[in-house]
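Q: My labmate handed me this sequence with no annotations at all. I'd like to see what the chain might look like in three dimensions before we decide whether it's worth expressing. Could you predict it?
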Amino acid sequence: MSRFMALTGTVALFSTLTFAWSISGVVQSDKGEPLSDVKISSFNYAGVETTSIEGGKFSLAYEQTANNGIQAIQTAVTFKNNVITIANIKAQTITVSVMDALGKVAFSRTQHFVNETLSFDLNKTTAKGAKYLRINVDGNRSTYQLGKTVTLLKDDGPLPAIMFAKEGYQNTTYQMTKTVETNVNVTMKAGGTEPSSSSSKKVEQSSSSEKPVASSSSKIEEIIDCSGKAYQSGNHNMSVTVDGKKRTFIMHVPSAYKGDKPVPLVVDYHPVMGSGSNQLNGTTYKAQTDPEGVISLYPDGTKSADSRKMGPGWNVGPCCSDDDDVKFSREMIAAVEEKVCIDKKRVYATGFSMGGGMSNHVACFMSDVYAAVAPAGMDLNTTNSAKCNPERPISIIMFRGTSDPVCKYQGGDSGYGDGLNFLGAERNFQFWAQKNGCEGSPSKNSDGCQEYSKCKDGTKVVLCTKQGGGHEQGDGKIGWPFLKQFTLP
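A: Here is what I predict for the chain of 489 residues:
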């Protein structure tokens, strides 16, 4: 029987898709007592949080509408007699992957500069019992379920890991396996850290009004040859090999990039249990940098061999990857500089959650590459801060929330058994002020952020605290104007 879905007739219907998930249930103690006032949030979805109510009941939901690449495909998918046919493909790069019922990739193939119909005979591969088909066309991904019909799935992000935190109890993590889960029963064991006192200092977050300091790029343009570095706009899946291992990332090229002059580069690191694709959809920086033709990168972290550690993540000390992510970052940036015209003195790092931890980390070990960094939702931990020795002073702007249940504003043990013990927002702020040789005391600038402005080599150290804020992405409207003030010496 023919299994067929013609997308050409349904492009308008599916040009935007809604990715959503929801979870509800009860949280209780290991003695069976319902727990109220438990802070519930997610590692890999910023700003999605709630608190359990009387009887331990909770409900948490997320919804996002985004372009899912259907307009880019505009084709027909046929699955018959174990043969997949994809008609009328026009793409610079297309990757077709087939997965089994557990989501394990059984077959994958990438082709470049395609303007034809593609067919894949699964009878000649090990991909027997194909359940899912994933098509990635120039960075736009669509996933289909292969059954009685070929069904387009809502596929804009990974399922969340849900965190449960309450003073007097050990932090607990629950990994969702379906987009909708009800009657979930979560048990928290007594113990954990003692309540820590909240900072009494109120620092409000507001938008930056400081104008970026313009620096002449005429000399740089004379040195950097941009010939042959025009590049098609869009999201491009790329990779480099580091220590014999393939490492992947997305290079986002905005339509404003023309390849006729060097542009800045922003590397945006994702949260633990996230991905480069997830961060590309969630970042607040791309909306600010795209109009200026800035190239941005969204690297993928890796998992540790220790199954007790969460991942994918970044190697920022005791957690959460076994790979050399500093070396990966260097190789990734060098590879991109060969393809597009980058101003090497204006390369910046940002990131959210563990990605914020990674952007703190690279400030320690890549100050020769990054001109400035903008971490959000995480600080240095005691392990990597002890080894932190930047080659030069480096400007940094930090975004933190006083009610962050994941990386507590006051610092201390993460509570998730990963070995991470954080400095806390204020200590992280003071740490970087000391490293940069800042003089005097911080002042509240016109944006409502704490700022050390008298630091070595014209660098600045800024902490933007959101009173009552949770585990949130940084504010690109503040972060990007700050970052682009600075260039490497």
